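The records we work with from here on pair a chain with its fold. A complete example follows; check for yourself that the lines match position by position.
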Amino acid sequence: MNNSTIRKTSMNETTKTISFGAVALTLAALAFYLSGPPVTPDAFLDQGEAFFPDFTDPNMATTLEVIDYDENSGSVVPFKVTFVDGKWTIPSHHDYPADAQDRLAKTAAGVIGITKDDFRTDNVAEHEGCGVIDPLDETSLALGGRGQRITLKNSSGTTLADFIVGKQVPNHVGFRFVRLPGEKRVYAARMNIDLSTSFQDWINRDLMELALDEIVAVTIQDYSIDERSGSINTRDNISLTVGQDGWRTKKVHNGYVVDSLKMNTLLTALDSLSIVGVRRKPAGLSASLGQSQASTEMTNDDIRSLQSKGYFMTRDGSLRSNEGELQAFTTSGVTYSLRFGEVLYGSGEEITSGTSSSDNSNNKQSSGPGENRYLFITTNFEEKNYPEPITPPNTDFIGKSDSLLTDNDLINKELADVYADWQRKVNAGRSRSATLNARFADWYYVISAESFDKLHMKRKDLETKL
């Protein structure tokens, strides 16, 4: 074959290749024109979108409800905080006052930022494995795999967000499975929500508003009550006062002094008193205690309520508790009285808000896990510590310039200043005590055994050798 023939054959092959390529491109273009762009599965269409696009202002949220599921008991565990009638309360805990505005706003802001980052499944059979079964779903037979349902509403009751948070996504730190109630689709979503259903995280932790350095004296009345005879068994009465050389007490054993470290433990426990639960007092008892214990008139229901928590009225009308009491005296003249009542066993909701079994006074446990104790708090302003000073005979000094004040004017002005300072301190003390009593009046508190032990020390616990 000569060179001319070879060149002609090669050109024919090239021409065929180009022709085939052109036909292929034409067919591909025709196919694209007829079929449109590639189809995306419906499940992926909303990927990357916000779960709640209409919820944009975290301050709109005035109610947070979280539903957990207790697999051991097979029951739902609700927690709710809401803003009603000008105050934040926790309905799931007897409408106890909540310190919630900032925490709820942070939670709401985190919810606003949740997006459908990655579609995972729309197979209902996989909901249990993802942990997104609705805890309120009564049709599901599964005890495991139930998630945490979170609902946010505004002041009119309109739902702003409602979703179920499941397990952590494997190999994806910070991601959880998320599903909307009533829908099959499950997403992986990055969660950055400061969500706590712990009662202690939603209340004012500074319960008594008491500073450690204002405590000047402490009295521990160590006694118990024989409930059958109604008699009081007095074991000890320890009076502690502070001076320049530290804390001291009378009747100290020879060669012993007050242990400053143990005393600091007691004072710190007072300053940072933490409650683990609450119970509401009867309305009549709360109303009387909100003003002054001295004006208390007890009904039979009040008495039964008190006795069920370990508190008893004596014949002279004073209130006693079955494990003694402690008084803390302050520089402001306000005296705090802490009365230690009945032991309460349990954990979780049965302690924080109470259950029929944990609060049944006819079914008292003698032992068990999670020992706690009822606490009854009142305050009193000790006016006797602030005797009224002499008032000035006249107030002619008022309005005069300093250069025109006579000797009598100067004396009267000084008397007036002293009286005004006394009046300011007395009014402040009365107001503080009244405010605190109004706060404490509605509630029996529950404290841990650890807190009780730190507050209710024996004489031997407070003494140390020289």
Notes: Confidence is low (pLDDT under 50) at residues 5-11, 30-37. The CA atoms of residues 117 and 200 lie 33 Å apart.
